[in-house]
Design a protein that fits this description.
This protein is mainly beta. The chain has one domain: YaeB-like (Elongation Factor Tu (Ef-tu), domain 3, Beta Barrel). The protein contains 1 helix and 8 strands, in the order ββββββββα. Strands 1-2-7-6-3-8 form a 6-stranded antiparallel beta barrel. β6 and β7 form a beta hairpin. The chain is globular. Bound molecules: S-adenosylmethionine. S-adenosylmethionine binds next to β6.
Amino acid sequence: MNENPETLKTIEMVPIGYVENDYLEPVYNEEVYNKISKIVLKEEFMDGLYRIEDFEKLYILFYFSKSKGYELIHRRRYDGKISGVFASRSPHRPNGIGLTVVELLKVEDKVLHVKGLDAINGTPVLDIKPYIKETEEES
Ligand SMILES: C[S@@+](CC[C@H](N)C(=O)[O-])C[C@H]1O[C@@H](n2cnc3c(N)ncnc32)[C@H](O)[C@@H]1O
């Protein structure tokens, strides 16, 4: 067990940017996976996009900014089964982190045009990573 205070301390994060799209409020709608969104990066992180066009798909990590509270046990949407929050993709979770694989369409300065992002307009973006098919399927 490694439950020292350093391991369990509060972590502070600063968004690297935000989402721009037509979804103003959370909706459960499969159509969102065909929609195009923009991810607008803060100027100071722009250089971090160097060579991002090398990848067709990206992981977008974001913050469920409009979610209030969570339940550790709930009925998950995926199959309607009662499950723990960590066995679901619920937007109501202890640390409110969303993770979606998107298709990268275009990069314009500090703006990424992506398809398939299920985050609503104004959602804070925490991180972006390339989705590397070979690596994902190796493990
Ligand atoms: C089931 S979650 C899945 C998100 C991501 N693919 C994941 O697995 O972490 C998708 C839901 O989150 C909602 N959502 C998107 N952005 C949000 C935000 N900023 N605050 C709260 N809910 C949000 C969407 O409207 C949608 O209903």
